[in-house]
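Milestone M4 deliverable, item 7.
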Amino acid sequence: MTFVLSAIWLVTALYVCFMLAYTVGWHRQKEYSPTAFAASNTIHRVSVVIPLRNEAHNLPTLIASLQNQTYPNVEVLLLNDHSTDSTQSLIFGLNDSRFIPLNSPETSKKAALKCGIEHAGGTLILTTDADAIIPPNWVQTMVQAFFDRKTHLLIGPVTMQHGVTWQQIEHASLEGTTLGSAGIGLPVLCSGANLAFTPQWYQACAPYLKPHVPSGDDMFLLQATLHLNGKVRTLKSKAATVGISGEPTLKQFFTQRARWAGKATHYTAPSILCSATVVGLMQVAVVVSLALSVLYPFLLCTLLCKFVIDTCLVASVLTYHKKVRYVWYMPLLTLLYPFYALGVCIMSLFPVSWKNRNVSSF
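Output delivered:
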């Protein structure tokens, strides 16, 4: 029992250190605002690459937001990934020369993304998702931030604009970890909903992108960049913040998270591995502490430590987005989260269905 208690305290201490570092890293990131661009700043042609599968319901909003971009020198490659709805007819029916519709020859988001990058004519690639809510200065801000100093991979900000309370809080934690870890020079997360890189860098990373794994195009690109000692930067900017919506049903939410968790066995970057290991062990430590708290009430301090340090990071992110009202739910979610996380890990061991396709986690 002494070993178990010692392990719990060790894991708790490591977790507190990690989350405290991410909170400091979040606050170290300064707000980046775009300047009025001169004609010379538009010499960089930008290719926005967006894989699409059964996204007909999202296309009107997506296309309108891209047509409203303030940056003029841009092309948008829309990759139809074997959709079974009207996505193909909608993108090929567009009467706008800035939009280039293509059918992906292979089945998977990764293959569609690769196809789009290979057909891109820009000096900079931006990626986003079909259901994203894109601000008008997004392209302009990402271009300026990318080229203002040496960058191989720019991780743009992504926030949840629409979603139930528990999804909002969880995503705030992910957002804080993304910017916070990069703020201390040890990036561990990114999202394909807002990334920038050059076609040449993508080709350099290609051997490390694990095409046999059905998901993880964003995280494997981050991992490849770290492996090649590329410069990773994150952007804290409301002007470049891409909004996403939470999953509409509990089943879809758990399926998505299981798909994310399933690729964790393929992570090899030390910063990503260490962070994932400590976070995972902390969930186990909380569950064990709750089970043993009848005999050892002082173990409830483990839960208290997690609550305090998680709230520090999550409250910072929610305050930035003017969503402080969600902080009041942190005590309940701190208690429930370990059980949710362990459940997702168990789900990730089995094949899941995503967008009407069977997806193996491994």
